Amino acid sequence: MSGHRSTDDTEKAVRAKLGDTPVRHEQMAAVANIYRAAAAVRQHFENSVLRGAELTWTSFVVLWVVWIGGEMETRRVAEEAGISKGTLTGVARTLQARGLVERKVPPNDGRLALLALTPEGERLMDRVFPEFNAEEVFVTQGLSDDEALDLADLLRRIVVQVETRGEDRRLELLDGQDPRPRRSGRRAKTPESTGREGQEVRGAQGADGV
To answer: pTM higher than 0.90, yes or no?
Structure first.
């Protein structure tokens, strides 16, 4: 594929870098191509059917979860969509502003928040999902039906492995310690730079959506 190393080229480059250091090339190729496939598929969908509906991948997944599952707690929506509660908050606000979802608080428990599709959200998903599925067919066109099912099963096994054993593995790698906060790669902020950035952010608010 243009712009990408072949698997053989990548393995040769790794061997040149690492010499005799043992590397499991088959597993490296599997994980690398999961990442490449996921990125390529997401980009294709966001630049085609989802762009026409003015949806990001994440906002579509949130709509899909609520469309299929019906009204549900925001905590469950975030879990099913595979995103953080903070990310869901921003996405839900954008979808609410478009009139596609509504947020409800049960009268008997103010601690809970529920999400449900509005009639407009239902109409959008009724229209968009068949178009979305047509692109699912397109991106897997090189596979037979049996191969597509085999691929789905293999990927599901990887998901189960990470979901059921990933936490123990992370604790093992970190010697039982909590992960350190992620670093963005930006320079440490000084009081002066923080003030300037705050002014710039406030001045730019409203220019971009979530």
So the answer is: no
